[in-house]
Amino acid sequence: MSDQRSTMTTQLAIAIALHQLATVVWVGGMFFAHFALRQSAQTRLAPPQRLPLLLAVFNRFFVWVWIAVIVLWASGLWIFFGVYDGNMRWYVHVMMGLALVMTALFAYLYFVPYRALAQRVPAEDWTGAAQHVGTIRRIILINLGLGLVTAMLGSAGRYLQ
Ligand code: HEM
Hints:
- The protein contains four helices and no strands.
- The chain has helices spanning 3-44, 47-83, 90-120, 126-156.
- The longest helix is centred in the first third of the chain and has 42 residues, at 3-44.
- The chain is mostly helical.
- Keywords: Membrane, Transmembrane, Transmembrane helix.
């Protein structure tokens, strides 16, 4: 293998590993939040216990989501332009489009309903807090669906004609 080709392959391996890890963190975290945490908290805890717990969970999880978003874009663009010079097939373009929608939805969730939730919980306004949790839940569900499709495209897209 020539030196140049082996450097490119190493770069690709590092970028794909980071890309894949960030996917696991973001999409796996949303799957857990929706299908395990939410349903258990809903059935087991009353609003004054449930809503502060959910806020504390979001405080921690959303930091990791920002890190995952940055890593996904940086590694994805690195593979796309740095390794393949922008010559990639349709499924990568679809991935980028879906990632753009997911990033925009997450930014909205973070700056609007999550910010509002962080104000409602200390004020012990459980009705208002529950409404914002409802909005966050719907956005996370949409992003979870988009994230699963994006992850499938990323790994299986290259085998499609
Ligand atoms: C939520 C966002 C994203 C998710 C969940 C995601 C997921 C994935 C997955 C699972 C892979 C397969 C990795 C492997 O080979 O094992 C992949 C590959 C890839 N992704 Fe993403 N990705 C996202 C965003 C992006 C963005 C923003 C870009 C920007 C250009 C991008 C560009 C790429 C490229 C170029 C590949 C390599 C495709 C190939 O070699 O066939 N991705 N992605």
